[in-house]
Input
Amino acid sequence: MTEIDEQGRAVPPTAGGEAETLLGFLEFHRATLAWKCADLDAAGLGATVGVSTMTLGGMLKHLAYVEEWWFSQVLHGRPPEAPWSTVDWAADEDWDWHSAADDTPEQIRDLWQESVERSRALTGQVLADGGLDTLAVRVGEKTGFQPSLRWILFHMVEEYARHVGHADLIRESVDGLTGE
Output
């Protein structure tokens, strides 16, 4: 049985297999980000700390893009979906962060949640078909970099863990909410 903590997050398994443990930590960090962004209006999602321009809304949209990039575009070799397919990344390489200010909290949360759900399904397909050693379909044009699903999952744990730390500081500045 999965242990659920006081915030409603599934606790990663302490004696699971490699895939189960990686997915457990990724899901824990996804749930932590969702908790940090819950119940905030546009002002809360647009708040910054200190001199940083980073916002929780921008973070959610950025992580929606990161989910799309690694699991759909890199792992499965799929073309980008909207809204990513319409972005002029050369004009604004941080469009995911900046454009969140133009979205409602519901739009941002929905975009992130849809990206996470798609990533879960795409990961499940690869685990069922070949496992953690499966190499991504997309190969870096200049570098030849072709990560395995294992590498992508480790990277996503790192990506979320880093941003959850940022989210802690921003959320505390909004309404005093603290905790991991």
About this structure: The chain has one domain: 18-175.
